[in-house]
Amino acid sequence: MNVLDLIYPPRCPLCGEILSLREGPVHSNCYKKLSWVQEPLCKRCGKPLTPEAGETRELCMDCLRSRHRHRKSFDQGRAVWLYSGDIQKSVLDYKYKGMKGYTDFYAGAAVQKWGRWIQSKNPQLLIPVPLHARKKRIRGFNQAELLAKAIGRRMKIEVNTDILYRKRWTEPQKAVSGQERRHNLSKSMEIRHLPENLRRVMLIDDIYTTGSTMEACAGILKKNGVEEVDFLTLCIGYGSG
Ligand SMILES: [Zn+2]
Ligand SMILES: [Zn+2]
Fold it and tell me: Which of 6, 102, 136, 233 has the fewest CB atoms within 10 Å distance of its CB?
């Protein structure tokens, strides 16, 4: 045990309780309760398909709709867990209570679940979904960046935080319509310092819900010549949304 463990004792990344030495990095009971994303998944965004909702096709309703709009967007995405229960609270604490110690657990699980898929996509860079500079100052860190770095270390893929910027403060947009939200978001992303010959990237974030953020990031990357944009997130919302 090192000194830091005494000052900041390790906590279970799922329930948040302090762990005793013999318990390891996560309570086994908490781990057993995790809802891992399972097939059948939407071939594009990786959302679990719900046959009872008529999603018997290969794509979820959101992706069917977006394909029909011919928007330049991401190619494929995968998530590790469904956004519910303990992991939902865990990710919220990670982001808003600064539980940075959870990073290794998250990255380890992401690589265990999707390491081979990441390899098959062969991204030249991992790019964390950017946070507006002001939000990052308030929060002290960008959770997507911590994740990308931890995944990049394990997969030996470079992480780049200089390409994609979020340039304007976007207020929480629960009240505005989906279309308005997508419009605001796409205008808020900006490309700087794009390396030459960048063809394939993978975006990293904590949560995928409506996909608007991911589409905004992918859209501007593609507009600037990146050919393939995939994404990996820790959690994904269930059903369409
Ligand atoms: Zn626990
Ligand atoms: Zn989908």
Answer: 6
